[in-house]
């Protein structure tokens, strides 16, 4: 897909908005009557001195500002970046109309990836990761509104369609989250607890977007975003691996080492341990591979030194 024509069109739109600039004699300030962008807030956000009478703003300036809005140093960097990065830039430009929109995205990213950034640095924020997250995040905003639509515009999914929607919260699709099909949850809207699999899935007939909502919908307007998980959640996949590595670093332990659990008297590789989200404090704890049958934790896993002739604890 060719993205550069879209970027050029947005730069021209930004220039058109600037050209609506006029001097308000009463307020003694320059103002705009923009059509495409809240150009005043954007210029201020990037420290453009538009309060000067001789301030000039050309198409080249507009192109430069469009690049800055989506995180690039200049226009040349934007138009010569990868296709995935340009796809992300286009996606964001569709949603960036003011400085508030730009700041909101930057704050959202900082919050959403805070732990990963602390652990691995900014390199975790590659274009593919951010594009996937952006698509999910902004679409989620639309999904949240479905619960407030009139009943004649939505339908309740059943059978296989409902099962497919709920299964997205299982291991493969939601590795870092606490919701799973076997979770027991509490809806903070209606103050009722139920098995997550009893949740309803509703669909907007116009957008075809779906949303997982409280089992008591439509009386209750809660969605899965309002659910508090009441049962411990075992993590899988990448989220589990990340937590095991974090625990190994904390205790200066080799992730591939052998351990002995003093609770169940079992020996196993540390990488077989389980990472579990505690529903009371939301923290992740490392437990014995035999959890929940064994409640041993990281402190109960004694390192085993393997020698050529014997095993020494």
Question: Could you please describe the fold and organization of this structure?
Answer:
This protein has 313 residues and is α+β, with helices and mostly antiparallel strands. It folds into three domains: 4-112, no CATH class; 137-231, no CATH class; 234-312, no CATH class. It has helices spanning 4-18, 39-45, 59-69, 75-79, 83-93, 99-112, 114-120, 127-144, 159-167, 237-250, and strands at residues 22-24, 29-31, 154-157, 184-187, 192-195, 200-204, 210-213, 227-229, 233-234, 258-261, 266-269, 274-277, 284-287, 301-306, 311-312. The strands form five sheets. Strands 11-10-14-15 form a four-stranded antiparallel beta sheet, with no helix packed on it. A hairpin with a 4-residue loop joins strand 4 (184-187) and strand 5 (192-195). Helix 1 crosses helix 3 and helix 5 (83-93) runs parallel beside helix 8 (127-144). It is globular and about 80 Å long. Residues 307-313 have low confidence and may be disordered.
In short:
The chain is α+β, with helices and mostly antiparallel strands and 313 residues long. The chain has helices spanning 4-18, 39-45, 59-69, 75-79, 83-93, 99-112, 114-120, 127-144, 159-167, 237-250, and strands spanning 22-24, 29-31, 154-157, 184-187, 192-195, 200-204, 210-213, 227-229, 233-234, 258-261, 266-269, 274-277, 284-287, 301-306, 311-312.
What structural category arises from helix and sheet content?
Answer: alpha+beta
Give the overall form. globular
Task: Please tell me how large the radius of gyration is.
Answer: 26 Å
Sheet of most strands: 4 strands, antiparallel
Helix content: 25-40%
> Would you report the number of β strands?
15
Topology as a string of helices (H) and strands (E): HEEHHHHHHHEHEEEEEEHEEEEEE
**Number of contiguous helices:** 10
Q: Beta-sheet strand percentage?
A: 15-25%
- Give the mean pLDDT: 87
Strand order of the largest sheet: 11-10-14-15
